[in-house]
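EI: anyone free to look at a 451-residue chain?
SC: sure, send it
EI:
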Amino acid sequence: MTNASALVSACRSRWFAGRALRRAPWTRAQILFLAFAFYMAVPLLDVPFWGISLSAPILMLVALEVATGQARVHWARYEGWLALAVWYWLGCAMSLVANQVWGGRRITPGEAYELVRWAYWMTAFALSMVFCANPEFRGRVCKALAAGVTLLAGLRVVEAVAFGFWGHGKSYFMSPNAYGWEFTTFAPFAVALPATLRGGRRRWALAALGMVLLAWVLSGSRGSWVALSAGLCVFLALCLASPRALPRYLGALAGGLALAGVVFWLARERLSEPVGERVRSFQTLDQDKSYAIRKLMIQKGLKMFRENPLFGAGLDRFKSTSVPLERPPILRYAGQEHFNVKSSHNSYIAVLAETGLAASVPLALLLAALALKGLTAAMRAARRGDIWSVAAYASFVGMSIHLWVLTGLTGTAPWFIYGLLAGVIVSSGRYRRVGLIPAPGRIVAARALGA
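SC: here you go
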């Protein structure tokens, strides 16, 4: 009887805490974090004269709020995830130190600066997890992401109409591959948005979704086409876990696809050639230099790993390391060094080659935990009507696939998404422990910053 009373008391206190949070004004840290999230989806501006992303000073202000106690965080709730992040960073540091001690390669200022950047990305992961463990605030964050990617899509459509950049060949605000990366990572939130709205706002959200899907195709990024398609398939599969809400989710996506299809039909003469050319290129990948270079860089990364499987060649040393390469005929137009200085074009191979098992093992454990626990949390979220958590998992899946063809781990966006999904997992586990499973469409908020 005592245990039952304690459970009822815990549920009641959570309910009152949620109502108090909904009435409370946003803190400075929350406002800054929303700005940070919005920028993640539309990263067009840098800090003048510094050459760094605008997200860096914003996130550092958030970190300052947390460090000075202005935003309370109970770190013990996140210690498992934080341990993996620290382990990964230490693995990166060990790769440099070991290569200096045993390999005789001095650590350059640039490599030391890269280690500082990794510390910043681990901070982004930790703070994103903490803020997004609050279910109500997580919804605000996801709406900011949907707004940001919609703005980015609008800019891409403006490029096409104003400058005639209808295909993959040219773009103005960002490179075609950068557009593709942003759409892969953040378009699932635009897909989820119409399902959370009603009336006129839902119709506007459907129009925005149609524009996002149109801009995604206009980017011409084949990696994004494959990755986002996989993410949206996961999105729909998870929605099957919520039969009552499924028609609303399917209706939102179908409406966006229909609007995009109408625009494609109206602009078919302009789109048929550039888009059709990229689609046909899937049939001739064996003659595609870009595809061949990516395969060659995988070969290089594996050779670098075999030379030093424990610590790799050292952090940020993929381009500066030379290994003998077996080039296919299509790449024999240039010598070995022409290809040895290229980017890895593969985030996972880059980590394996540069840091060996020292950092690859914690990264693999982190990704496996996010994939497996995230799937369970997303299925649970779909059943209770939390569509934003489903979108977070779909984003993670698509982004993880896309990282196989670019070096995107050296950026803030993937660590933000990892933190977002970790926050989903943490909050899902807390609901399960106290028996606090909200009804579909209603999320009961936890206390400040996921507490």
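EI: The mean pLDDT is 84.
SC: 👍
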